[in-house]
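Reopening: TILB protein still failing for me.
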Amino acid sequence: FAFSKLPSDSFRYLGWQDIEQHDVRGNQLHCPRVRDAGPSEEELFFRGEEHSLKKRKQVTDTEKWQKRLQENWENCAELNLSFQDLGDLYQVENFKRILRRLIRVEKLWLVDNSLTDLSAIRLPRCRELNVNKNHFTSFKQLPKIPQIQHLSLAENNIMTLSGISDFRHTPLESLILKRNPCEFQERYRQLVFSSLPNLKMLDGIPKLPEDCSPPETKFFYKMCTIL
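Support: Ran it again with your exact input. Result attached.
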């Protein structure tokens, strides 16, 4: 079995380039890479890539505005910004800049981006958010998502359920918390459903009668009388 090369394989040794003349808009990309002008000249020098440097022309306000319109993030309804490899500060800041412009996005995937805090971001129309495999430690670090219906937080580092009640007044129906430390908390499912009465599904399992039982009732079910 022979593996075929990726379409980008022939460009793997090229330096950072700005493609100035194109008609592709941001909401037409299936999984765009978010980058802001590439590494600094100093960083490229220390990487031994000084040969790829080129003089950057002065960008006018008109050109900045044209670039902003071309990105067209404000009209994105579904967007996948997963696997961005955000290893540098300028990448993180540019990434958050784009997130702030997603005022109409309804479905958003941010999987495996090493994200730690998006509490300053607001996604007013987002109904489905997938932030699996990041570094969130609390529900307080999530973006503001008042219209959220489906939220996936698998494989983060959320220790407790503190802050989960903030979603009580949202239309949240489905929540995934698999492979977070809070999953091993005693009476985990009961605590989640008591905090979110309107929740219908947790970790892919529908709400069960025992999930609504008071703690005392569940305790008696576990008792064993030996005569």
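Helices lie at 41-46, 61-71, 89-100, 188-195, 215-221. If you still see a failure, please send the error message rather than a screenshot.
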